[in-house]
Structure formats: C-alpha cells, structure tokens
Amino acid sequence: MKQNALQGVVPNETEDLNVEHLQLLLLIFHNFTEKGRRAILTLFVQIIQELSANMDAQARSVPLILARLLLIFDYLLHQYSKA
Q1: CA-to-CA distance for 29 and 43, rounded, in angstroms?
Q2: Which of 1, 8, 14, 76 is the most exposed place for a label (fewest CB within 10 A)?
Q3: What contacts 8, CB < 8 A, 6 or more positions away?
Q4: DSSP one-letter code for 11
Q5: Average pLDDT, the chain
Q6: Distance CA 37, CA 29 (A)
C-alpha cells in the first residue's frame, strides 16, 4: 500500500486491501504484547509521515490509500489506548 501511495497509483478491486486481510491484521494486533503494538503504531506513524512528505504523487489522484491507512491507524490507536 505504501509503495502504491508513493507512486500515486489508484488501486483497483484486485490489488486493494481486502477485508479478510484487514481482519487478520486487527486480530493479530490484539494478540501482540504492548511492545509489539507500540512497534506497529510506530511503523504506521513512519509510513504516514513519509507519505505526507510526498503528497505531490498523491495530489494527482484521490488519496484513497492514505485515507485507508489513516482509518486503520485511527482504529489501532484507539485500541492501543484501551489496553
């Protein structure tokens, strides 16, 4: 997802993040220790910072990938603060 966002590629239905993979990611996230969850959140922050620094590639198209990453990050952040 990160590489597609950096290149400004709009995903089609076959190469987008599907629901099953996202559910697996969230299930695994809940089973990590606090240190593991913190590492995942740190990775998300680094990816979002890198993508926001290269917004020119995303300005050519709808920033759908960035929006999805932010939505996932928002969920993970709320779940991290509950634990």
Answers
A1: 13
A2: 14
A3: 57, 58, 60, 61
A4: P
A5: 78
A6: 6
Rounded CA-CA distance 31/27 in Å is: 7
Judge whether residue 42 has pLDDT over 90: yes
Q: What percent of the chain has pLDDT over 90?
A: 22
pLDDT the model gives residue 14: 46
pLDDT over 60 (residue 19): yes
Which element (helix H / strand E) includes 76?
Answer: helix 64-82
Alpha-carbon distance values, 67 to 31, 36, 43, 63, 77 (Å): 25, 24, 16, 6, 15
Token couple for 13: 């239905």
Task: Tell me the C-alpha to C-alpha distance, in Å, between residue 3 and each of 24, 34, 43, 58, 77.
Answer: 21, 28, 14, 11, 23
